[in-house]
UniProtKB/TrEMBL annotation:
<dbReference type="GO" id="GO:0051539">
    <property type="term" value="F:4 iron, 4 sulfur cluster binding"/>
</dbReference>
<dbReference type="InterPro" id="IPR002500">
    <property type="entry name" value="PAPS_reduct_dom"/>
</dbReference>
<keyword id="KW-0408">Iron</keyword>
<feature type="binding site">
    <location>
        <position position="198"/>
    </location>
    <ligand>
        <name>[4Fe-4S] cluster</name>
    </ligand>
</feature>
<dbReference type="InterPro" id="IPR014729">
    <property type="entry name" value="Rossmann-like_a/b/a_fold"/>
</dbReference>
<dbReference type="GO" id="GO:0004604">
    <property type="term" value="F:phosphoadenylyl-sulfate reductase (thioredoxin) activity"/>
</dbReference>
<comment type="function">
    <text>Catalyzes the formation of sulfite from adenosine 5'-phosphosulfate (APS) using thioredoxin as an electron donor.</text>
</comment>
<feature type="active site" description="Nucleophile; cysteine thiosulfonate intermediate">
    <location>
        <position position="223"/>
    </location>
</feature>
<dbReference type="GO" id="GO:0019344">
    <property type="term" value="P:cysteine biosynthetic process"/>
</dbReference>
<keyword id="KW-0411">Iron-sulfur</keyword>
<dbReference type="Pfam" id="PF01507">
    <property type="entry name" value="PAPS_reduct"/>
</dbReference>
<feature type="binding site">
    <location>
        <position position="195"/>
    </location>
    <ligand>
        <name>[4Fe-4S] cluster</name>
    </ligand>
</feature>
<dbReference type="InterPro" id="IPR004511">
    <property type="entry name" value="PAPS/APS_Rdtase"/>
</dbReference>
<keyword id="KW-0479">Metal-binding</keyword>
<comment type="similarity">
    <text>Belongs to the PAPS reductase family. CysH subfamily.</text>
</comment>
<feature type="domain" description="Phosphoadenosine phosphosulphate reductase">
    <location>
        <begin position="27"/>
        <end position="201"/>
    </location>
</feature>
<dbReference type="GO" id="GO:0019379">
    <property type="term" value="P:sulfate assimilation, phosphoadenylyl sulfate reduction by phosphoadenylyl-sulfate reductase (thioredoxin)"/>
</dbReference>
Length: 231
């Protein structure tokens, strides 16, 4: 039964990506190289090359993420556009608050996320009619009401979450079935991977997002990339 459900969801994903390509070009996948994004990368690279792929290189990603970036390029032969934070903004932040100032307060953490993620995303989405993410409802309390399609008011374009109703098991079953490369940190109990200093391994039974910004309240653990959305 689980194989049948995965097959149905895979077909639905094919249909949705086909519709997105047809109706929302130019459109791109925001790839953070987590397991979910690798499912989407695999399908886009093999079947929908007209859909672009970009990544936000914060400058503080784990080495394993950079290794996977290189592996994806070699495995699929695709071009992934990298967007970096503004150098002056990073320099000013580190000068004022230190390289790890984000541990001191939620405000400083969100400011760091804004500089390293939110502002580069704005540049990445210029000229796009829509963007695609790998977010799922299971991932955190802040994503429980996630919809497949929303209007991203912050950027004035449409946003799609094609895997929003996929389970973690379904994601990994797809990866195994299609021999999709994935981040080596997943094998070390890192279900959710972001910047190295803000990500840690979790123990069995913990929430899958508990390794991200673990010093903060789980109800507010987002980086600012996914806000101001309307159904």
């Amino acid at each position: 039964m689980s194989e049948q459900i995965l097959q149905q969801k895979t077909e639905q994903l094919h249909n949705l990506l086909s519709e997105i390509r047809r109706d929302y070009s130019p459109v791109a996948l925001a790839n953070s190289f987590g397991a979910e994004d690798m499912v989407l990368t695999d399908m886009i690279a093999r079947h929908y090359p007209e859909i672009g792929i970009f990544t936000l290189d914060t400058g503080r990603l784990p080495q394993e993420t950079y290794d996977l970036m290189q592996q994806v390029k070699q495995h699929y032969g695709v071009t992934i556009q990298a967007y970096f934070p503004d150098a002056t903004a990073v320099e000013d932040y580190v000068t004022q608050h230190g390289p790890n100032g984000f541990y001191e307060s939620v405000a400083l953490r969100k400011r760091c996320c804004y500089i390293r993620k939110v502002e580069p995303l704005k540049r990445a989405l210029i000229g796009k009619k829509a963007w695609i993410t790998g977010m799922r409802r299971e991932q955190s309390t802040t994503r429980e009401t996630l919809e497949v399609s929303v209007f991203d008011a912050a950027h004035g374009i449409h946003k799609f979450n094609p895997l929003c109703d996929w389970t973690e098991k379904e994601v990994w079953d797809y990866i195994k079935q299609h021999d999709v490369p994935y981040n080596a940190l997943h094998d070390r109990f890192y279900p959710s991977i972001g910047c190295a200093p803000c990500t840690r391994a979790i123990t069995p039974g913990e929430d899958i997002r508990s390794g991200r910004w673990w010093w903060e309240n789980p109800d507010s653990k987002e980086c600012g990339l996914h806000t101001n959305e309307q159904k």
